[in-house]
Amino acid sequence: MTRLLTSLCNKLTSTQLCELQPVLKTHTRIQRVFSFGAVRILLAFIFIAPFIAAGNLISIFVLDRFTGNTNLILEAIRAILIVVFVLIAYCYYCRKIEHREAKEISLKYSLQEWGWGFILSLVMLSVIVGILYAGGMYHIKEISVIRVLYRACYVFIAGAFLQEMIFRVILFNIIEDFIGSWKAIIAIAIIFAMVHLGNANSNYISAISQFLSDFLLSAVFILTRRIWMVWGVHAGWNFIQDGILGMPNSGIDSFPSLIKPIVTGPGWLTGGKFGIESSLSSVILNVAFAILILNVAYNYKRIVLPKWIKGREI
């Protein structure tokens, strides 16, 4: 078991911190402007935003005209193309602006890392819903056909990808480079919680739960320094929670699910209308796994200190 865990950690930490550091040229005035973190964030968004916008416009003005299986197939193709073109655009940004390879989206171990992330979410949700089921708060009313999962599958997988590209690969990477890992975890968690305040059924309790739960996503990214595992965690959580278990995803319950449940009990245990991620058991598990993963990351020297501290880990 020890050898297995060591081998897994060695693979998860194969991307070195120094490979992610931008090589910023400051010979000219425009180069000095491009070296600022806020400008780099803006430029990264400029590179990827057209493809996200184009995908949404195609869905609204073209694909919505189709129905049934044709619509499902075309929407799935659209989601795949958005992922592919956003990855290509980010690679181009890294080469032109940061003058480095985009190691955080390299394909080495990508499927393995994505799978481990999905399994982590599966384990956590199994524990949380298992507690509700044992306590008589989660009842299975009906089980639908597998076909209902198709739309939820590509929507949640593509949605989680875009969120992690924005929150972890772009924002976290650049913010961490200046203020260090620990402060960046807090900063990104605040942004993540504030963004989700606009969702239906959100309140201050859901905001706090989102803030604390985001620690796990940043912890996974710090450990691997790549998008794949954190994408798997995020996509797995959303897909299993809503698509399979039939519980709201961050306050939104707009997809048919495999299981149609009846959920009863206090909101602090079930998460209420916002979803199970707002429950106490979910927050505890997310924070516990975040602490565990951050401890491994610290031991493997994956933590970045603030830019103004000499001798920081890079």
What keywords describe this structure?
globular; 314 residues; two-stranded antiparallel sheet; 66% helix; mainly alpha; 4% strand
Describe it.
This protein is mainly α. The protein contains 11 helices and 2 strands, in the order H-H-H-H-H-E-H-H-H-H-E-H-H. The chain has a two-stranded antiparallel ribbon. Helix 3 packs antiparallel against helix 4 (68-98).
List the helices and strands and how they pair.
Elements: H1 2-12, H2 29-34, H3 37-61, H4 68-98, H5 110-134, E1 138-143, H6 149-179, H7 181-196, H8 204-224, H9 227-244, E2 259-263, H10 267-270, H11 280-299
Antiparallel strand pairs: 1-2
Helix pairs in contact: 3-4, 3-6, 4-6, 5-9, 6-7, 6-9, 7-8, 8-9, 8-11
Q: Rounded to an integer, what's the Rg over CA atoms?
A: 20 Å
Beta strands, count:
2
Largest β sheet strand count, sense and barrel closure: 2 strands, antiparallel
Spatial strand arrangement across the major sheet: 1-2
DSSP helix count? Answer: 11
Terminal-residue CA separation: 30 Å
Average predicted local confidence, pLDDT: 87
Q: What is the H/E order? A: HHHHHEHHHHEHH
Q: Per DSSP, what share of the residues sits in E-state strands of 2 or more residues?
A: under 5%
Shape: globular
Low-confidence stretches: none
Quaternary class: single chain
- What class do helices, strands and sheet pairing give? mainly alpha
Helix content range of the residues, please?
55-70%
